[in-house]
Amino acid sequence: MERRDRMIQSYKNDPYFLREKYSQPAVCRECGVTFQDGIFEWVKNPPAEAEEITCPACLRIQDDYEGGLVVLEGDFLQGHRGEITNLIENTADREARRRPLERILDMETSRDGRITVRTTYEHLARRIAEAVHSAYKGDLALNYPGEEKYVRAHWRRD
């Protein structure tokens, strides 16, 4: 007998992913990431017959459409800006090797010293915030508004 009391998960709409599969193999004309065997991955020598596409991350970058936001602030940040910036970049590099669509859109420092990092997807934003929190403690708040695949992370240490 089939159970009927399971929670129904609705499809989370991401306009940058096709509901159908991409042609396989396919290679992004912008960044060179390859889609094969159902996943995006970095491949040194993509197949010559690969179809050219623009991957979801490059489309998000072109459209300036963020999937995650990290805000870092506080007096502690001012004295450790270089270390924290390096940690952010190293975290992003490590994640991009494992998950090629997870990238930093931009990283800006405001006049008051706050660092804002915008990412293509929510996973990288969460990983950056957790890496900073793990290394430097402080207060971390993660907010997943609504049904969107999006996260706002706020870290502060005075």
Describe this structure in words.
The protein is α+β, with helices and mostly antiparallel strands. The protein has two domains: 26-62, no CATH class; 66-156. It is 29% helix and 25% strand. It has four helices and nine strands; from the N terminus they run E-E-E-E-H-E-H-H-E-E-H-E-E. A five-stranded mixed β-sheet has the order 6-7-5-9-8. A four-stranded mixed β-sheet has the order 3-2-1-4, with no helix packed on it. Strand 2 (34-36) and strand 3 (39-41) form a beta hairpin. The N and C termini lie far apart (58 Å). The model is unreliable at 5-11 (pLDDT under 50).
Produce a short descriptive summary:
With 158 residues, the chain is of the alpha+beta class. The protein has 4 helices and 9 strands; from the N terminus they run E-E-E-E-H-E-H-H-E-E-H-E-E.
What value does the average pLDDT take?
89
Shape: elongated
Domain module tally = 2
**Alpha-carbon Rg, integer:** 18 Å
- Measured by DSSP, the beta-strand proportion falls in 25-35%
Could you state the oligomeric state of the chains shown? single chain
Figure out the total of helices: 4
Poorly predicted parts: 5-11
**Major sheet size, sense and barrel closure:** 5 strands, mixed
Spell out the helices and strands N to C: EEEEHEHHEEHEE
Across the major sheet, the strand order is: 6-7-5-9-8
* Sheet/helix structural class: alpha+beta
Q: Into which percent range does the helicity of residues fall?
A: 25-40%
Distance between the termini: 58 Å
Care to count the β-strands? Answer: 9
